[in-house]
Amino acid sequence: MSHLPTVKLLINGEFVESTTSEWRDVINPATQEVLARVPMATAAEVDAAVAAGKAAFKSWKKTPIGTRARIFLKLQQLIREHMKELAAILTAEQGKTLADAEGDVFRGLEVVEHAASIGSLQLGEYAENVAGGVDTYSVMQPLGVCAGITPFNFPAMIPLWMFPMAIATGNTFVLKPSEQDPMVTMRLVELALEAGVPPGVLNVVHGGPEVVNAICDHPDIKAISFVGSSKVGTHVYNRASLAGKRVQCMMGAKNHAIVLPDANKEQALNQLTGAAFGAAGQRCMALTVAVLVGDAQAWIPELVAKAKTLQVGPGNTNPDIGPLISCAAKDRVATLIAKGVEQGATLELDGRSVSVAGFEHGNFVGPTIFSGVKPGMAIYDQEIFGPVLCLMAADSLDEAIAIINANPNGNGTAIFTQSGAAARHFQEEIDVGQVGINVPIPVPVPLFSFTGSRASKLGDLGPYGKQVVLFYTQTKTVTSRWFDDEASSGKVHTTIQLK
User: Which of 216, 284, 327, 390 is catalytic?
Assistant: First the structure.
């Protein structure tokens, strides 16, 4: 084992070898090759990372806005220059195709670009003469040490949703990437240091539940951002909130698309197929349920035919679909498919038997489609996180909307239609935070914020964009009055002044 590279911790500007006795393997999901070993950091190492952030905050919070912004101008340049390298690392450890890996990096890069605009995003307000000779103004000040806990499925994009905005607003940061694929995250962190992030402003620890709990409990961490499963996210939200922290948790999903019979059929089926099976379904914004309304129910054979054309293989050969992240993930998806059959759904396309020549040990599942899916079935009630599309039927748009609104999750939804009136009705009545109209995965660009809702989110402010500037800052309101000597009347007021 000793010849394998070890993933380092980043503490106070230094990449250091963990002293832990507990390590995990980073495994290529297409081949089962062990790529590196990742440490489960010790409590002392987490404390050291937070202490480094706390010490660096003293000077970082006073660093001029332009100095902070220029670091992110430099970082976006470095990410562009290293795009191919970053995608190759990401594909090796996560499995997604090279083209999709570049997309993963690019959607994070957009947030880095946005962070460089921090000067105009973190402005306070000023009002003169709110009472006799009294002025009021507000400033948006950084909180201190913030932390991020990120998932395996977007090891470039989601860390880049978090640390650039936190650091640009004047905070310091402790990042805990997914222990399943931390290597591309660490390469991005190296580039951030190269771009000029000072020692202690960005720190990285690796680990599992113990490290997550240490982050939730640490008295010097002021805010936590989390993306991952509902189970872990709920735990983080409750534990960290009890410890007095700000918390934002983006969690599980069950995203539905409504397909109306007036939709452009070719376009709707292409979009649906891509959004259901891209990244092997391992996206919290994947479209995993399609509600076919009226005559659109006749389109199932054409949807199945499109899904059958998708190539499954190792990500570095740029197929349509790569492997699932782990053997455990593959087993879980296969178990849920079996349960779908058992519970009475119709298996229109079975991806369990897919084999990829030369990659017999890869975690591959092909596109899988069920029709006749109903609430109460495991394949509907649970987030599968695999390339499985559930088809439901409805007689009307309102019936389809009612199905979606009855589901507890609220990450994303979409409608395919050529009717402006239907789309307008849908966007108004649907109780889901992110809505696509002929756009299957409506993740907003960073000018806006990610706005998942209901059971998909805990905390009221979303990642990146305008909302996260509020999340990562404390608004301080200052009310001031300056007296001329002659103007002071010497009278004591014990009542609230009305003017």
Answer: 284
